[in-house]
Amino acid sequence: MQWLSFLTAVTLVLRGVDAKAVFAHFMVSNSVNYTSSDWEDDIHLAQEAHIDAFAMNFAYDQGDEPQIATAFSVAESKGFKLLFSFDYAGNGPWPQDLVIGYINQYKSSSAYFNYQ
Ligand SMILES: *[C@@H]1O[C@H](CO)[C@@H](O)[C@H](O)[C@H]1NC(C)=O
């Protein structure tokens, strides 16, 4: 079983409203060997811990695309949320078109975290 020990929970205080969302910073490269079952386990643990979403942190050109797709598929089925944290330190800056492409591909997913 995978644990969430590598996650750092952060709290986002939404301006002007009495609402908070709790995100866990998820290093996608740690999930290179994940199956759907591993994603289900991590998301289940996160939901039990009242975490609202995983901030999916991943660097350019590190082969994380399959895990992003699996994570969204599982998150959609479990009513969980994800958002992107494009890492510009791990492997240099992301090409703009790839960032836009990821957002366009997943922005309408029921699992994508939207602010308000
Ligand atoms: C993924 O599996 C390979 C082969 O077993 C292993 O060498 C590697 O450390 C694993 N990566 C992670 C992040 O668990």
How would you describe what is shown here?
This protein is of the alpha/beta class and 116 residues long. The protein has a single domain, classed as Rossmann fold, CATH 3.40.50. 33% of the residues lie in helices and 24% in strands. The protein contains three helices and four strands. The chain has helices spanning 36-48, 65-78, 96-106, and strands at 8-13, 20-27, 53-59, 81-87. It has a four-stranded mixed β-sheet with strand order 1-2-3-4, covered by helices on one side. α2 (65-78) links the parallel β3 (53-59) and β4 (81-87). The longest helix is centred in the middle third of the chain and has 14 residues, at 65-78. The protein is globular, with a radius of gyration of 14 Å. It binds 2-acetamido-2-deoxy-beta-D-glucopyranose (NAG). 2-acetamido-2-deoxy-beta-D-glucopyranose (NAG) binds next to loops. Residues 1-19 form the signal peptide. Pfam families: Glyco_hydro_71. Keywords: Signal. It comes from Zasmidium cellare. This is Glycosyl hydrolase family 71 protein.
What ligands are attached or bound here? Answer: 2-acetamido-2-deoxy-beta-D-glucopyranose
Number of strands: 4
Proportion of beta-strand residues: 15-25%
- The CATH architecture comes to 3-Layer(aba) Sandwich
List segments where confidence is low: pLDDT < 50 over at least 5 consecutive residues.
Answer: 1-15
Order of helices and strands: EEHEHEH
Alpha-beta classification: alpha/beta
Largest sheet: 4 strands, mixed
> Which value, in Å, is the CA radius of gyration?
14 Å
Query: Helical region count?
Result: 3
CATH topology: Rossmann fold
CATH class: Alpha Beta
Shape: globular
In percent, how helical is the residue content? 25-40%
Kindly report the average pLDDT value. Answer: 88
Q: List the strand order in the largest sheet.
A: 1-2-3-4
What is the count of distinct domains? 1
Query: What is the terminal separation in angstroms?
Result: 34 Å
Keywords: Signal
Signal peptide: 1-19
Organism: Zasmidium cellare (Wine cellar mold)
Pfam families: Glyco_hydro_71
